[in-house]
Design goal:
Radius of gyration: 26 Å
Number of strands: 20
Oligomer: single chain
Strand content: 25-35%
Largest sheet: 8 strands, antiparallel
Shape: globular
Helix content: 25-40%
């Protein structure tokens, strides 16, 4: 899925556009015991409650694609009888009206999900009449292409409210506030099936994690049976390690600047595209070669990539490059410049020492004070 498809679904979570048929929930304590359950028609909820649930559902489809939201594909084995995908398909087709199936679903989550504390499992069923689109992209409400039927699952921590004082309007005084259990916004969840190309894709799911570096691999493996990609931070770390391993002792500022500049050029060229920019092994190899990495170093690239990232690993460009700044860091100094002005930074040997030289362009302000530049305009 792409962000435009996610945004289209999020528009459904309003009172005006809502078509959710059913909502079900299971409250689980810190000992993995089911404390209470509920199931009912969503549109029968009081208006105040409905808005609270909309907030939770929208949050489960939020964040950045490739970081908080991950497109996962089911392996073929999970689509066989008894597999994770096959079970979710039966659950979706039941429209959450099969109590036995729903209990089994809760049990699977409780078994797979490791969490210290209480939490609420929420799952909704919806049937979305997907409007057609004209060639200019405008929606045609009276021209439906298909019906997209899905379930959305959210796992929300339930915590005690903070202690404090509250104002009692009836008695006109301040009192100790009664602490109660409050449902927080979700920390994880998933949409099944995926809404790829504005159409049902039963072979994929969209997974959400509030913390992009804590993807809960065990939970995903046990419940969904899908392999997880590297986290956003893991992809950046892998890419940096790949540069260092490939370049070895020739890893200098100029080559790293060149790689950064090439990546920013790629991002700029791709900015009008809807799909995220992804680099596979061959594309990373081409990037390095065009950035000035010597042929003798490139000879070992394949081995370094396979050992560092894995032969079939792909890297999301937005996860490996910072398009907002270029940073040079030493133990005592951190310098950041605009990515398009890396030409202002270079190294020179001065007095027998390797120095970082920054060309001063325009006014220089130090601690809020405009200072005069020395002849030559260099620090």
């Amino acid at each position: 899925m792409i962000k435009q498809e996610v945004a289209e679904l999020k528009k459904l979570f309003t009172q005006k556009n809502c078509s959710i048929t059913r909502i079900c929930g299971c409250y689980v304590d810190g000992e993995k015991n089911k404390k209470t359950e509920f199931r009912q028609a969503f549109l029968a909820l009081p208006e105040e409650e409905m808005f609270k649930y909309f907030e939770i559902l929208r949050k489960t489809l939020s964040g950045t694609m490739g970081k908080n939201m991950l497109n996962l594909e089911f392996p073929l084995s999970s689509e066989e009888e008894g597999g994770a995908q096959e079970f979710l398909l039966r659950l979706r087709n039941s429209k959450l009206k099969d109590d036995v199936l729903l209990e089994e679903f809760y049990d699977k989550i409780i078994e797979a999900y490791e969490y210290v504390g209480n939490y609420l499992i929420l799952v909704v069923h919806d049937t979305y009449d997907v409007p057609g689109r004209a060639l200019d992209g405008m929606e045609m409400e009276d021209a439906s292409d298909e019906v997209y039927e899905y379930i959305l699952t959210c796992i929300c921590p339930v915590n005690l409210s903070k202690p404090g004082l509250s104002y009692n309007a009836e008695e006109n005084n301040f009192q100790n506030r009664v602490r109660d259990w409050v449902v927080d916004l979700p920390v994880t969840g998933f949409l099944f099936p995926a809404f790829n190309d504005r159409s049902t894709d039963i072979h994929s799911t969209l997974y959400y994690s509030k913390d992009p570096e804590e993807l809960n691999e065990g939970f995903v493996s046990l419940l969904l049976g899908c392999p997880l990609p590297l986290s956003a931070g893991g992809q950046k770390e892998t890419f940096h390690s790949l540069i260092e391993e490939t370049l070895g002792e020739t890893c200098d500022i100029e080559v790293v600047k060149s790689i950064h500049e090439k990546l920013n050029e790629m991002v700029e060229e791709h900015k009008e595209e809807l799909t995220p920019l992804v680099l596979d092994k061959n594309e990373v190899k081409t990037l390095f070669a065009s950035s000035g990495v010597s042929n003798d170093k490139m000879a070992e690239f394949d081995r370094h990539f396979d050992e560092t990232a894995g032969e079939d690993t792909s890297l999301l460009v937005s996860n490996v490059v910072d398009t907002r700044s270029f940073e040079v860091k030493t133990p005592d100094v951190v310098i950041k410049v605009k990515p398009e002005r890396t030409d202002l930074i270079e190294t020179q040997t001065i007095g027998g020492r390797e120095c970082l030289v920054i060309e001063l362009d325009g006014n220089v302000v130090v601690n809020g004070v405009t200072v005069r530049r020395s002849p030559g305009g260099l620090f």
